[in-house]
User: What shape does this take?
Amino acid sequence: ASNADAIQFVISDVVVDNTPSYVSNNLALQSWVASSGTIVVSSIDWLGSVWAASFTANGWLVTVDSITDNADWTRNFNVSWLAWAVPVAANTTITIANVVDLDWDSANVVSGSINITPAVDVTPPTTPATLTLADGDNTNWTWLAGFTNSTSITLALPDDADVAAWYTSESSSAPAAWDAGWVWPKPTSYTLSGWDWLKTVYEFVKDATWNVQPTWKSATITLDTTAPGSLSWITPQPTLKSTVYDITLEIVEALSWLDPNSVVITTDSWWIITPGLTTVSGNQISARYTTPNVDWETLTVTWLDKAWNAFTRTIDTALLVNP
Assistant: This one.
């Protein structure tokens, strides 16, 4: 061809669509479960098939996980949410918004919602099989089991696939499904109320459809942050010099018993407490004691109680006289 020849490109059958499409007022529900579903969205104007959209369920924004195109110019929007945060019940309203069509005109929505009645699960999850409480600072000391000197404790709970949220309380009254105290993931700690005493902790569970299991699992732990009041004689006070006595002392007003391995008794002449003959039963300490050849003596007792409180107390003999 010469330079005078012309090359022509013929463009035909091109349709330009600048008109927003109209979303059908029949949002088809393909499938639905408690936490996800598939909504089929179609357009009256096939040239402007719906390209993008967002949805809410009962006012909560839901996530579009994936989109599938259909041969009839409809699109499947697969949506989901955190089921424990959005209760799905009968007459759930699914609302469509922010719709654009295939050529990115903002689509006009004829009717942007559909009411659905999903199959609602009304069976609560199973009560946790176990609940273990421990001191939050001293969990490595096995003899501390059942005692703590801190309001911060640890929780040990089993895994349960049916549980969507957990509720820890010192009340045996079952919480409402919408109470603020529900947590996920599974809790590992709890803060006790702040007064010393035996504490009972209750654990409740609910599932993804907000069914609360009213039967709780409980466990107890003794909170003890207070030093005992005094040290007193159970056996009569020694009265004679240079004499062997089997003595028993008692820790008064102790909430948690003594750790048997921690008790140490010393005296002004410390060697006269016979090694191996000091025993502990509850809050009582027994020992074999030889009085010195002096007018009186002070005994000093140091120990840890089972809540990990360390104390030192002193107590005097009576006036000692010669046998």
